[in-house]
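User: I'm writing a short report section on ligand binding and want a predicted complex to refer to. Could you take this sequence and adenosine-5'-diphosphate and write out the structure as tokens? A short remark afterwards would be nice.
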Amino acid sequence: NHETAFDISVAPVPGMGMLCCFVDVTELELVGQQRRDFVANVSHELRTPLTALLGFIETLQGPAKHDPVARERFLGIMEREAGRMARLVRDLLSLSRVESEERRRPSGRVDLGGLVRMTIATLKPVATDAAVTIELIGANVPTPVPGDSDQLTQVFHNLIENAIKYGGSGKQVTVSIRALDDAPGLRGRAVEVSVQDRGDGIEAVHLPRLTERFYRVDTHRSREKGGTGLGLAIVKHIINRHRGRLRIESEIGKGSIFSVVLPVE
Ligand code: ADP
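Assistant: Sure. The structure tokens for the complex follow:
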């Protein structure tokens, strides 16, 4: 989908004319462009809360200096904006770590059922706040897979947290675990963990781009819910490291299912 880029050098060859050398630098150009886009995105994401913080500091030093009600309100907003910056830095560090480890095979072994159960327990307060109930199916299936326990916890944390955030208040989230004898694209036995919500769903055009860094279907909604736009990018890199697959299915008005398939061997 991209134009081909060449580096061209021309040199005279005595007695023979000219030598013209073409080097295909398309890949290099693309990587450079992606890096520039990423830096621009990060700067933009950091500048938004920073500008708000600076504005409120100025107001607190000036017009609102002796207004205790305004002070209280502005400090609340500043805390939220600082929290947004902290989450962004946390996710950027996570992303950088998982990217650099992507080529190294994980050496541990993980019981996925136990790990998913623990992750749900950790997210219980978030679910309760959103009036969401989480149903777990198949947690007793024996599911040892090779993997990095912290990273796989992060995968299911991000997917279940998204299902709570975007699934809608009062709705149910279902997490199902099942053993597969054979999975498309993977050799041998595998385990599938799927996270289903009953939210508004995602239009098909967005699905292939959801795991791109900073890609959001609705930026305002994501920000409002404390999102950084990096959660699914982190998920993708961790699953790649585990030689697994991520499948996303969604239907408008019905909800979405994010399924992770991990090889057992
Ligand atoms: P964010 O921090 O914005 O949630 P993610 O990388 O986790 O970032 O997700 C990217 C985008 O994908 C979100 O902004 C949201 O628009 C969409 N998305 C993710 N999970 C769901 C879901 N379960 N239902 C609807 N939309 C979702």
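A remark for your report: Helices lie at 26-61, 68-101, 112-129, 149-167, 219-224, 231-241. The radius of gyration is 24 Å.
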